[in-house]
Amino acid sequence: MRLCALASGSSGNCVLVKNKKTTILVDAGLSGKRIVEKLQEVETDVKEIDAILVTHEHLDHIQGVGVLSRKYDLPIWANELTWEAMNVGKIKEENKCILPENNSLQIGDLQVENFPISHDAVEPVGYSFYAKEEKATVLTDTGFINEEMESRIAESDLIVLESNHDVEMLKTGPYPYHLKRRIMGQKGHLSNEQAGKTLQKIADGDAKQVLLAHLSKENNFPQLAFLTVKNILLSEGIEIEKDMRLELTYADKPSKILTVKKE
């Protein structure tokens, strides 16, 4: 299995998950045209896409959903409340797919499970993907990590985890108080420190690969996110590259492509 964040941040989010037979997008928060271009940058044809999974209804996660579905006849999966809340224009009724109540579905040869997260949306979810012994999990836009979320990433080979802001930058930055409070709240976004402590807890000797995602342009910067998480891991003797590989995501270009490497 391979995973790549085509874009990540408040200006748009889109994650590519694929193996030899199945290709899925998690969210499509850029214009359809930009997503097609970014797919080409990672040598993927948009016609390979089997489905788009939506985490929640905010525009930076759904902007290109309707366009891609209409142009390429793509099924869109979201839970019922998210469908009620999001506006993607008119798409074929058969492409309007509601996530099953048991939270599990099969798309091609990837098993997909969704799980609840905590964000200021109607019913936000994260996603885990399974193929044989491989597992990948996408978990962003959550104000905290509970035991279920922790277990999802603890068992994963590939992880997309939010590292949205530096708390001091946010506190002293230009955002109004109500917005700062929202971001730091339980239905907001994970800080660099929260991301680091979460990864610290789930380190288990397997060389997990992690993309730090949804970095704030105003309240974070890539080197700070990376160093904060790295130093938290090092404080517990967790070595970068040996015990856990950390990579960054970007708003304007695709991340590195992570690939499951089983010994």
Q: Assembly state here?
A: single chain
Can you tell me the CATH architecture? 4-Layer Sandwich
Strand order of the largest sheet: 6-5-4-3-2-1-14
Name the helicity range.
25-40%
Low-pLDDT stretches are none
User: How many domains is the backbone divided into?
Assistant: 1
Broad shape: globular
- Helix-and-strand structural type: alpha/beta
By CATH's scheme, which homologous superfamily applies?
Ribonuclease Z/Hydroxyacylglutathione hydrolase-like
List the helices and strands and how they pair.
Layout: E1 2-7, E2 14-18, E3 23-26, H1 32-41, E4 51-53, H2 59-62, H3 65-72, E5 76-78, H4 80-85, E6 96-98, E7 104-107, E8 110-116, E9 125-131, E10 134-139, H5 147-154, E11 158-162, H6 167-172, H7 177-184, H8 192-202, E12 208-213, H9 222-234, E13 244-248, E14 258-259
Parallel strand pairs: 3-4, 4-5, 5-6, 10-11, 11-12, 12-13
Antiparallel strand pairs: 1-2, 1-14, 2-3, 7-8, 8-9, 9-10
Helix pairs in contact: 5-8, 8-9
